[in-house]
Amino acid sequence: MSKILVTGCSRGIGYDTALLLARAGHEVVATLRSPGSCDLAKRAVEERLPLTVEALDVDDDASVAAVFGRHADSINALVNNAGIYSIDAVEDESIERFQQVMQTNFFGAVRCVKQVLPAMRKRGSGCIVNVTSIAGRVAFFGQAAYSASKFALESFSESLAQEVAGHGIRVALVEPGIIDTAMATTSLPQYSPDTIYPHGRRVHAFFRNPDKPQAPADLVSRKIREVIEGQDARLRHPVGPDMLPLLGWRLSHSDEAWIRLGSLASDAEYNRQVLLDAGVDLHLD
User: Fold this and answer.
1) pLDDT of residue 185
2) Which of 28, 138, 149, 244 could form a disulfide with 51 if both were Cys (CB 3.0 to 4.6 A apart)?
3) Could you tell me if 206 and 172 lie in one domain?
4) Are 112 and 171 a contacting pair, CB within 8 Å?
5) CATH number of the domain enclosing 57
6) Are 74 and 29 in contact (CB under 8 A)?
7) For residue 261, what are the domain limits?
8) Which one, of 175, 252, 248, 245, lies nearest residue 213 by Cα?
9) pTM value?
């Protein structure tokens, strides 16, 4: 069994992944900013799981160095899952928020990767799983900060994979579509209330569409386990019932057609076109 460090374990995908891997017998280091904010440690004791919980702020060099200083030499797999989401038009989003999202979603993963590479390279083995998103493959309106961070992580991972494959290190991108986590449901970020742009409410409509298929977090955690335990050499692993349909929808449009669609002024007109193009009724009345 492997020793696996997972970031962003307070809830959702990270929480499920830590439990799933530990229940499978792996030694799991589950990290999050505030260990007291969830019951992972309690669950580990109750279920007698090989899981420890540690405080880690992926935005902070010293925090990353301290945690990986204790574990880097023995980590077989790293799961970069920590992330934050933001919804706003570019004009409404602050520079500070752009920086915050990029700091966590992109630079946080880069910090962690750089900590495990030397030992993995010397050992000649290792697995790095970076959790991105449909937003790392398709640039939807209203989430430029988040999408830019995920596109960056996709590109970083593709470059990294070429550099380390010869040293026995596998790099994988797990790419969820819209998953039913708190970030996408009860804690869905709000957009600027006084905005002149319609795009924030359209993003919300995708997440809150009552007709969308169920997509529990364990779809992603099971895919992560499959990647770590298997020998699949593919870089990209789309997951979720809407991931491939959304990707196919984007690929069916030229850049110019995609921009025209996203720029439609009327919610009703946008809804009609999405229903025609993708068969999705966003209920934007």
Assistant:
1) 86
2) 28
3) yes
4) no
5) 3.40.50.720
6) no
7) 252-285
8) 245
9) 0.96
Q: Measured on CA atoms in the order 105, 223, 173, 229, is the torsion positive or negative?
A: positive
Residues pairing with 31 in the sheet: 54
Q: Which two tokens stand for residue 101?
A: 């999202």
Measured between its terminal Cα atoms, the distance across the chain in Å is 52
Q: Which pair of tokens denotes residue 139?
A: 């640039």
CB 17 within 8 A of CB 88: no
Residues classed as catalytic? 146
Claim to verify: residue 90 and residue 39 sit in the same structural domain: yes
